[in-house]
Amino acid sequence: MELDELKASWNALDNRLVQSEVVNLRMVRELIAQKTRSAFDGVCRHNYYNLIVCILIICVVFPYVYMNTPIRAFSFVIVEVAMVIGLIPQIMKLSLLSQFNLEGKCCNELMGLVLRYKKVCHQEVIWGIGEVTFAMIAFYISELVFNDQVNYGFSMKVLLPLGLSVLTFCLSYMLALWMRRHHAQQLLEIEQGLEELKEFENQ
């Protein structure tokens, strides 16, 4: 009788250990998922912030500059079209992020979305540099060569706006560089989290 009771005690202890291990694994998985979700939310905020700022510049800031300065309509259109085209990668990235469902998709699918997202980010940098360079050159050619309403010459009327443009570009570049590094760190956290969650799928 004592042997049966001892076996029953051991079996009960084994069951508690198994249940405890399952609970611990579930807690670890939840912590990893929470960290991954937090990094993903940061990436989403980054993209929504960029989109809102771009829309404000397109719809409010630059039209205000155009209405209060002797900028040619053609120059205004050049910059506006360039900025609108610049929204395309933003929309593509947000579309990919909207498909990211940590609970409803397997890790391989999510890792594929992350790779596609990173590819769009890489293409955005290349096209963005080319687009900004072309838009700035076309804008200044349009203004300096064809704007007869203003006698630019090499005076403060030219040097001041040009200097402010260069300063704004440099500050924007530095801010974008810092945000890009933070963004890259968040993507790395998402990839590491998905790799760890993938191990739980295989168990």
What are its keywords?
203 residues, 4 helices, 0% strand
Description:
Helix content is 88%, strand content 0%. The chain is mostly helical. It has one domain.
Indicate the low-confidence ranges by residue numbers: none
Question: In this structure, how is the largest beta sheet organized?
Answer: none
Radius of gyration: 28 Å
The averaged pLDDT comes out at: 80
Report the sheet-strand fraction. Answer: under 5%
Distance between the amino and carboxyl termini: 38 Å
**Into which percent range does the helicity of residues fall?**
over 70%
> Number of DSSP strands?
0
Number of domains: 1
- Output the number of helix runs: 4
Query: Based on CA inertia axes, which overall geometry fits?
Result: rod-shaped
Instruction: Spell the H/E element sequence.
Output: HHHH
What structural class do helix, strand and pairing data support?
Answer: mainly alpha
Topology:
Layout: H1 2-67, H2 73-98, H3 107-146, H4 156-202
What's this, in brief?
The protein is mainly alpha-helical.
